[in-house]
Here is the input.
Amino acid sequence: MKIKEIIKNIHDKANSKGVTLQFLFYAFIGGICAVANILAFLVIAKFSKNLLVNVWLAYFISSALNYLLCILFLFKHKARWSSAGEIIAYILTLIIMGLVDYYSTWLFLSFGMNNFWAKSCSNLVGLVGNFLLRKFFVFPEKKQK
Here is the structure.
């Protein structure tokens, strides 16, 4: 079986099994991207001491990987938008969820959680929020009649 056929088979199965399986598959993709984010951050930090630049470059790299994995394996590419529209919608969700991440981390810290637990809880909020925005805004499937 060729790689293209394998990818199509995974994509078709992920789309035909309902929202619960799609969410679990998205969580797996998110885990891959979280690792990519950390690795990118560590590599970039070797060359730059600017934390803001390091964080945003790593975020951009992992977000690009997330987009590619989503359209390869999980969601239908150009389901609602043209390619340009889809990318704009995706970037909008990144901005929204970036703000949600910041403020939820701040909120959990204000409740007295340590950095690890505050960021972990914020990541769970982000996982659900990102999935819902991707599924219903960036890559919405047309309802079948």
User: Anything to note?
Assistant: Residues 41 and 58 are 5 Å apart (CA to CA). Residues 1-74 form one domain.
